[in-house]
Write a structure and sequence with these properties.
The structure is a homodimer. Chain A is an alpha/beta fold and about 200 residues long. Chain A is built from 6 helices and 11 strands. Chain A has an 8-stranded mixed beta sheet. A two-stranded antiparallel sheet of chain A has the order 2-9. In chain A, a hairpin with a 4-residue loop joins strand 10 and strand 11.
Chain lengths: ~200, ~200
């Protein structure tokens, strides 16, 4: 059905167009079905995802943010080692209902049975993960993991909930030095009760 | 007319309310007439106002941004020494039609006759400038001047045109370490042609 020999355009131009359109339709469905890796974080207006001591107390909770719906979009979470250790200290290990991958060359798998430690070949691991069926993949943080994965072209979207605050220092959204990354604004939403503005970008 | 002795509320409640309302009206007019110091800049999503080498080539020009209207809101510009030297190197001295104050302890006034060098008592200078009649005052940059003035409670608004790009390093919007500053989102505008999103905040 999808054989397109070189003579078909001459012999039957209408059929050639139909075949190409079918192939494009399938390609677009395939593209839509590939799981995206999405860096979705809260950040201050000056570009930090945590304060100088890892503080998150400046992150406002707006009653209109639908965390349930957000969590529903993902089934897998990617976490950098430092962020994971911060979460572990706070008594938070794997996220409930999510497959959790922690990127670390030093943590040992048997110490953390609830998560999968990825010690090497991060890109290959993610490429094969993306090829499996499933929901989107949440790049939860931190900034160093984002920098590494973005540098390998593995991040599809950057989604920042900009909090109405200047934190003045801390863990950057993207720690310097990093390469320049072009973005395309694909959506935004204002949360009027708190002044959070959520920005969605596609990585170019 | 604005004497409000302690007995008036008992003697003539209606008159007391009228007096208070008049005073509130005048107070609100006075507040509106005070010139605001506004930090209005373009920044990358990761919080830089210039690239690692001072680059501004990532700043997109959207045809729908009305720079004429923006310039009309100001008659005075505040510039830090480094930003001014960058502008001077680019052949740009004072901004046309604006009173330009450059904050520097090292530049000499007679070398820069088109601008006013403020070497000391920045806060006092700005307090008295603000008390004069005039339009709003544009804190043009850089980040160090903003940090210094914000630390003295002298900045009224932060207005950021967020460019759709991660620059990866450079001159921060607010160089760390800085104190935490609460903000109130007062407005936003999306420029659809380029994906710039302009955010206006009042400093709390």
């Amino acid at each position: 059905m999808f054989q397109l020999d070189s003579g078909i355009i001459q012999r039957n131009p209408g059929e050639a167009v139909r075949v190409i359109q079918s192939a494009q339709f399938l390609a677009s469905r395939w593209e839509a079905s590939v799981r995206r890796i999405r860096y979705a974080v809260a950040a201050s207006l000056d570009g930090y995802i945590a304060g100088p001591k890892g503080e998150a107390d400046w992150i406002v909770m707006d009653p209109d943010v639908d965390f349930g719906a957000l969590f529903e979009e993902f089934d897998t979470v990617l976490i950098g080692r430092r962020t994971f250790e911060g979460m572990a200290r706070a008594g938070q290990g794997a996220l409930p209902g999510m497959k959790t991958l922690v990127f670390s060359r030093t943590l040992r798998q048997h110490d953390y049975p609830d998560v999968t430690i990825v010690a090497e070949k991060a890109a290959e691991t993610l490429e094969s993960l993306r090829a499996e069926p499933g929901k989107d993949i949440w790049l939860f943080g931190g900034g160093l993991l984002f920098r590494s994965l973005a540098g390998s072209g593995l991040v599809d979207t950057v989604e920042v909930a900009v909090m109405p605050v200047l934190v003045g220092g801390g863990i950057p959204l993207l720690p310097p030095p990093a390469g320049r990354t072009g973005l395309e604004l694909t959506g935004h939403k204002v949360y009027g009760k708190t002044g959070i503005i959520s920005l969605q970008y596609k990585v170019k």
